[in-house]
Amino acid sequence: MAINLKAKETLIQVGELKGKYRYVLGTELYNKLSESKVIKEAALRSGVSRGVMQACWDAAGEVIKAWTTEGHSVAIPGLGTMRFGVRAKSVETVNEVASGLITARRVIFTPNVEIKQELMDTAIQITCYDRNGKVIKNVTSGDKGDVEDPDNNPGGGEGKKPGGGEDNNPGGGEDNNPGGDIGL
């Protein structure tokens, strides 16, 4: 198994590299697995009927939705935790605080140690495309999964987002940067 990425030669539209072509990495997306396929596979792996698995799936989804909307961080078995959060502008005085400061509502997922290790142990395959969409190179990782991990990098990489931008809150929690996060 490997994580498949694409590196496409893309014209940069903003910033100091505006007007230059650069190779931009992104995840190759295949298709969304249907809920019924996931239920069927989970039923096979657990030895319970599809109907029972569907009822459990629905109940778990309702519990997660209810508890996250109440402000809890909820465990997702075998994966990590999920919670809701927001991005918001900062203001100088308490009189300026209002819900209009919110720039985005987010779902925040924090993977557990095992899933992070699985990710580190998974090979990477990159297909490189030129600006016309022609495949020009394929790269397969031969590394030991020792790509920098900003969550576990004492003294190094603090204050930098994975995309190279500044993090306005390197200590954690919500930040004041309405730019894009890299999704999981």
From TrEMBL:
Span of the signal peptide: none
Stretches assigned to the HU domain: 1-124
Record's compositionally biased regions (Gly residues): 170-184
Keywords, alphabetical: DNA-binding
Ranges where the record places region Disordered: 138-184
GO MF terms held by the record: DNA binding
Pfam families for this protein: HU-HIG (PF18291)
InterPro entries: HU-HIG (IPR041607), IHF-like_DNA-bd_dom_sf (IPR010992)
Name by which UniProt lists this protein: DNA-binding protein
Classification lineage: Bacteria, Pseudomonadati, Bacteroidota, Bacteroidia, Bacteroidales
